[in-house]
Design brief:
Elements lengths: L2 H22 L14 E12 L2 E9 L9 E7 L5 E3 L15 E9 L2 E11 L5 E10 L6 E7 L11 E8 L2 E9 L5 E8 L6 E8 L11 E10 L2 E9 L15 E8 L4 E4 L3 E2 L7 E7 L5 E6 L17 E2 L6 E6 L2 E6 L10 E7 L5 E4 L6 E6 L6 E5 L3 E6 L4 E7 L6 E7 L5 E7 L2 E6 L4 E6 L9 E5 L4 E8 L2
Parallel strand pairs: 1-20
Antiparallel strand pairs: 1-2, 2-3, 3-4, 5-6, 6-7, 7-8, 9-10, 10-11, 11-12, 13-14, 14-15, 15-16, 15-17, 18-19, 19-21, 21-22, 23-34, 24-33, 25-30, 25-34, 26-27, 26-33, 27-28, 28-29, 30-31, 31-32
The protein binds beta-D-fructofuranose (FRU).
Keywords: Carbohydrate metabolism, Cytoplasm, Glycosidase, Hydrolase
Catalytic activity: Hydrolysis of terminal non-reducing beta-D-fructofuranoside residues in beta-D-fructofuranosides
Family: Belongs to the glycosyl hydrolase 32 family.
């Protein structure tokens, strides 16, 4: 470790020590989501199963619940459910990453856990430079930086050039990276290498004015490319899309294209962009394929610039978390997302109930646990509304087939909502943690994610709806 690295690690740990007690006492600390020990978490990074162990790294600011500094925090797990905190993986200690170890990915290279990330550098006038860098580890805990392996911007692109996602295919390494053209359009570029060190640019595979796509945002962040069930998938977080009907209501979007990638021609023929999550907080997801062959996705439960400063955890010294891991599949041309099966480990005893809906609110399940899972079925014909700890409402309107997730806006207190049209609502799986909701609709067809901040005295889940209906609920306490 260099002196500068040691100094930054010590400063970060001092900050953790200083704020940990206040942070840990916050009732909004999550029971089963990855969170920063103190400070801010944003993108998941370097997600990989390496020698049997799952590694998750994340963009971390140890110094404040804002975006002023970026380290890579690190947690590991044997089961994607119980995560163990590890020492800081990388800190912004060098000339090539001094203004942030920005997002990137992880891969095994000759038995070493290798991270590829963006070194963000800004001069006094705010001019940006971007370096794609490597860091390697033999034990999966301590990382040694190797410095930049790509230090030039491609012709015609700005320094908004970041977030390499690396993979190996047919003996060759590839990465895709988020980019912006000089005329301010977002793109994804493809590079390849036979040794992880010398990289060749192949060109843009997707983006504004690439292939059949017209203007589609001014910057694309955090791309991820993989083949799944015979289809190529590009996951990406474009910035600059306008709201359109029920879609694109967050400040920035995260979604995917399905298509056909030709690595030799660096071309990706694809269909339309669709959002991965219809809720409030979801951005910069990253996937990995694990040793059992599952393609697993984790997202940041946050969105840059989206009223972050109004979240109530800020005054306690921390903000944001990651989502639960989701297994991806492509079925009949649709991308499905299901919570990983391992989450059932968290389940206590099950409570089953069949509720006859009435106009008046009534108890949905007797449990008051702030972390629980619900499975709701027999929903199709009903018109109903569930109140979650007085902090959010989930409802379904059978006349319009709209499923809604509503909560008070953090800044104004006025109701805000996200909706999705579900023509045949058959099942809802809800993961409630102390300050979040994740709704999985129809066995992975849609997901709606958002933070919720229940008052301390609010307790329980209540329901009301059309009296002709009843619906079945199973609930499991998670704590
Ligand atoms: C996405 C992002 C990335 C960048 C990182 C910095 O949220 O802006 O593009 O690498 O966050 O923290």
């Amino acid at each position: 470790m260099t002196d500068k690295e040691r100094e930054l690690h010590e400063l970060a740990y001092a900050e953790v020590k200083k704020h940990k007690e206040t942070v840990d006492a916050d009732p909004y600390r999550q029971a089963f989501h990855i969170m920063p020990p103190v400070g801010l978490v944003n993108d998941p990074n370097g997600f990989v199963q390496w020698n049997g162990t799952y590694h998750m790294f994340y963009q971390w600011n140890p110094f404040a619940p804002n975006h002023s500094h970026k380290f890579w925090g690190h947690v590991t797990s044997d089961d994607l459910v119980n995560w163990k905190e590890q020492p800081i993986a990388i800190a912004p200690s060098d000339w090539f990453d001094k203004n942030g170890c920005y997002s990137g990915s992880g891969i095994d290279v000759d038995g070493k856990l290798t991270l590829m990330y963006t070194g963000n550098v800004k001069d006094e006038d705010g001019n940006r430079e971007s370096y794609q860098c490597l860091a390697v580890s033999e034990d999966g805990v301590h990382f040694e930086k190797l410095g930049p392996v790509v230090d030039q911007l491609p012709e015609g692109y700005t320094a908004h050039f970041r977030d390499p996602k690396v993979w190996k295919e047919n003996g060759r390494y590839y990465f895709v990276i988020g980019a912006q053209t000089e005329d301010l359009t977002g793109r994804v570029l493809l590079y390849s290498s036979d040794d992880m060190k010398n990289w060749e640019l192949h060109g843009p595979i997707a983006g504004s004015n690439v292939g059949t796509l017209r203007e589609f945002g001014y910057m694309w962040e955090c791309p991820d490319v993989f083949r799944l069930d015979g289809t190529d998938v590009l996951v990406v977080s474009p910035q600059g899309l306008e709201a359109e009907g029920l879609r694109f209501h967050n400040v920035y979007q995260a979604g995917y294209f399905l298509g056909n990638l030709d690595l030799d021609k660096a071309s990706f023929e694809h269909g339309e962009f669709d959002e991965l999550d219809r809720g409030f907080e979801f951005y910069a997801p990253q996937t990995t394929v694990d040793e059992s062959g599952r393609r697993i996705l984790v997202g940041w439960m946050g969105v840059p610039d989206q009223e972050e400063e109004y979240q109530p955890t800020v005054e306690k010294g921390w903000i944001h978390c990651l989502t639960v891991p989701r297994v991806l599949t492509v079925e009949d041309g649709l991308l499905k997302q299901r919570p990983v099966a391992e989450l059932s480990k968290l389940r206590g005893e099950a409570t089953h109930a069949v509720v006859s809906l009435q106009d008046e609110m009534q108890e949905l399940v007797p449990s008051k646990a702030r972390a629980q899972e619900l499975l709701l079925t027999d929903l199709e014909q009903a018109e109903w509304e569930i109140d979650v700890f007085g902090a959010a409402t989930i409802s379904y309107d059978k006349a319009t087939n709209l499923l809604s997730f509503e909560r008070p806006n953090g800044k104004t207190g006025d109701a805000e909502r996200r909706q999705v049209k579900v023509d045949r609502l058959s099942e809802l799986r809800v993961f409630i943690d102390r300050s979040s909701l994740e709704l999985f609709v129809n066995d992975g067809e849609y997901v709606l994610t958002g933070r919720i901040f229940p008052g301390e005295s609010e307790s329980g889940l209540r329901v009301r709806g059309e009296s002709v209906n009843e619906f079945a609920v199973t609930a499991w306490d998670f704590e």
